[in-house]
């Protein structure tokens, strides 16, 4: 049995100081990896951060098959990870950030355990275009399944756009991810498990199984609709989702460094 708290501390230090670390040498089970994640998130809560929802990862069937996964992975979101729509992030606060175009769900009622897509939809207060900034704390974004789960499934920041009527059909909405005005990824919400509502159904099951059932007010990030794009200082990132609208953020430019004469 590995020392769960030592691994949690290592990954929390890496995230807090934006410093890459080697992959875990320790062999741990998926259950132990989630225990590491829970303990590393507890360190954040102890510093005053508040859990406000969760993110779903590996939500494309192709990615699941490629990784040999039988289930989705998930991570926890805190209030400190939330970036205002149109706001600025500091590149130096990340190891090597990437952005994924997503849909976010806002719960209007609790949603726990085994639920139908219809029940999941009925619990919603809103849906929004959203951007997830993922940032693996491992060097070169290289990790095993248990590595990434322990690392809060690479979750680091997220931006949600305007909340729209949750009765909108989400099955096949067009996505365009622009960086500095250039379309870098084009896709469809259908890439998220065929329909992103399935991701919410899975989130309800996994969160309840972990003893943290979804509550009214929670945000759930449904998962990437396209491949992730690497980010750089000074960029403007904007996602447009058919029927849902747009969401955006800026990355602060590199700071000028005064050289000695
Ligand atoms: O949000 C995601 O689907 C990514 C999950 C973690 C894997 C990665 O960092 O690419
Ligand atoms: Mg994601």
UniProtKB/TrEMBL annotation:
GO cellular component terms, A-Z: cytoplasm
Lyase keyword on record: yes
Give one GO molecular function term. Answer: 2-oxopent-4-enoate hydratase activity
Which InterPro entries does the annotation name? Fumarylacetoacetase-like_C, Fumarylacetoacetase_C_sf, Hydratase-Decarb/MhpD_sf
Q: Entry's Gene3D superfamilies?
A: Fumarylacetoacetase-like, C-terminal domain (3.90.850.10)
The keyword Lyase belongs to this UniProt entry's keyword annotation: yes
Fumarylacetoacetase-like C-terminal domain location? 82-251
* Keywords tagged on the record: Lyase
Supply the PANTHER family for this chain. Answer: 2-KETO-4-PENTENOATE HYDRATASE, ACID HYDRATASE
Protein name, entry field: 4-oxalocrotonate decarboxylase
Q: Which organism is it from?
A: Kineobactrum salinum
